[in-house]
Amino acid sequence: GSLVRTFTPFYFMVEPMDVLSVRGASVIMNCSAYCETSPKIEWKKDGTFLNLVSDDRRQLLPDGSLLINSVVHSKHNKPDEGYYQCVATVESLGTIVSRTAKLTVAGK
């Protein structure tokens, strides 16, 4: 007989947590999703997908975490501060979105 797969485990093992950083520091937003088929991991900041391909400061680590090198923060330029979400997609299954983690950059 044929085996009917009713449930495929697909879940976050690690979700990002709120982070307090200082300017110039490196930050890792942790994320790791589990599925038999490796999920495609993407990151959203303030609801918009980050384009990490052309980004020289932000990179996706092999486990799905987001590394932000030397956090940028000035009075009029706060590109790193905000709300981050990890988005994991498995083609045949769908997409899961992590909790929202806030990155706050402390002033001097």
UniProtKB/TrEMBL annotation:
Where does the record place the Ig-like domain? 9-104
Keywords for the protein's UniProt record, in alphabetical order: Disulfide bond, Immunoglobulin domain, Repeat
In terms of Pfam families, this protein maps to: Ig_2
Do you know which CDD domains this protein is assigned to? IgI_1_Neogenin_like
User: Could you tell me the superkingdom of the organism this chain comes from?
Assistant: Eukaryota
Q: Which GO BP annotation is one of this protein's?
A: cell-cell adhesion
| Family that this chain belongs to | Belongs to the immunoglobulin superfamily. DCC family.
The name this protein carries in UniProt is NEO1 protein
